[in-house]
Amino acid sequence: MRCPFLLLALLLIPLGAEALAADVPQLAGCTTKVFDEIRRTRTWSGKAPGGCPASIAVEKRANGVVVTAWTTRNVDGGWVKTAFSSAMGYGEIARKKELAAASRDIVARAKHLERCLESINTANDPLDCRDRATKSYIAGEESGVENDRIVWLDDNGRHTVVEYAFGNTEPTPSPPADLLDGQQLPPGVIIDLRVNR
To answer: pTM above the 0.85 mark?
Structure first.
């Protein structure tokens, strides 16, 4: 049974301060490669782009696409999962120059979120970012403790969110939380990028 509780910031200092926040820009790069693939092929292949060591999920929304990239690593006493989610509108994806500008925006926001996550993990200070944390105690077929933190920029800008989770539960943790309650696309789905000009 899961019992989520809002954590005090001091309780969320992760297993090992090498918080894997450095993964955030790399994960952001993975998401921008997926957006570029969608622009070129009009489909989602279902595979991580070359040079991207992450799992990928793609969600279609009314106004665009959300791509989430995540890695899960085993550490002493448990696991750590780092995820990055970003969004682009159909018009941005369809036009090469707009896609390039949106990709630069995503990478810049990811670097900002990386600084905030590093600050949270070292000094319990989210800087100018917003964050939400939960702790779940699990008993039953699997048992242990899971900690989950979501970090975002509260600036009415592009959707970019980091999820940082760690715990000692078995088996390997599930994919990242569905940050926007969307539905993941299966590989090969055609994505219509037509926009009204």
So the answer is: no
